[in-house]
Design goal:
Number of domains: 1
CATH architecture: Orthogonal Bundle
Largest sheet: 3 strands, antiparallel
Distance between the termini: 47 Å
Number of strands: 3
Shape: elongated
CATH class: Mainly Alpha
Order of helices and strands: HHEHHEEHHH
Strand content: 5-15%
Length: 182
C-alpha cells in the first residue's frame, strides 16, 4: 500500500504523462498534416463513416454541433471536405472528404482525441464513472469548473450542454471568458 506522498507523486506523474502524450501526438499531427488535432480527427471520423450528417459527426466526436461546424468551415475553405444537401430532405447536410482530404488521412498519424475517445468507449460504465469522478475532482482542485473546455491543443472551444456536478442539465450559467482576446 502506497503512502499519501507516493499517491500524490504518482497522480502528478500520470498527469505529466497525459500532457506529454497530448503534446507529442498533437505536434506530430500538425507537422505531418498541417492541421490541428481536432481538424485531423474530424477528417478521420468522416473517412470512417463515408458521407455523414453534421449532427452525427458531432455525436461521434462528442462535440457541440457549433464546434464541429467551425472545424468543418475551416476544412471546407482549404478544400479537404465538401458539404452536400440531401436531395430528399434539403434540411439535411452531409459531409464527405475530397480527394485531398482522403490523401491527408492516409498519410497522417492517429490523433490523440481519437485514441482517447476509443479507449474510453471500450470501458465499462463502472470504470467510466470512476474516471469521471476523478477528473471532476481535478477540475474542482484547479478551480476551472467555469472555464469553457478548449479542444486539446487547439483554439477551438467546445460549448457542451451545461450540467452540474451530477451531470444534470442546468441553465443560466455562463462560462468565464478566458484567454488573450477576452
Amino acid at each position: 500500500m502506497r503512502n499519501r506522498d507516493e499517491l500524490i507523486a504518482g497522480i502528478v506523474d500520470d498527469l505529466r504523462r497525459i500532457f506529454q502524450a497530448v503534446n507529442t501526438h498533437s505536434r506530430r499531427a500538425k507537422k505531418e498534416s498541417g492541421l490541428t488535432g481536432p481538424q485531423l480527427w474530424a477528417l478521420r471520423m468522416i473517412d470512417g463513416s463515408g458521407p455523414i450528417k453534421v449532427s452525427e459527426l458531432s455525436r461521434k466526436m462528442y462535440l457541440h454541433p457549433a464546434t464541429v461546424v467551425g472545424i468543418l468551415d475551416r476544412l471546407e475553405r482549404v478544400e479537404l471536405v465538401k458539404r452536400v444537401r440531401s436531395k430528399k430532405d434539403r434540411r439535411l447536410v452531409y459531409v464527405n472528404l475530397t480527394k485531398t482530404g482522403q490523401d491527408i488521412v492516409r498519410k497522417s498519424p492517429e490523433v490523440v482525441q481519437g485514441l482517447l475517445v476509443s479507449g474510453l468507449e471500450s470501458l465499462s460504465m463502472q470504470k467510466l464513472n470512476k474516471i469521471s469522478r476523478g477528473i471532476g475532482e481535478m477540475v474542482r482542485i484547479l478551480k476551472v469548473e467555469e472555464h469553457p473546455p478548449k479542444l486539446l491543443l487547439s483554439p477551438e472551444v467546445n460549448i457542451p450542454a451545461l450540467t452540474d456536478s451530477n451531470h444534470r442539465a442546468i441553465s443560466g450559467k455562463k462560462y468565464l471568458k478566458i484567454g488573450p482576446h477576452h
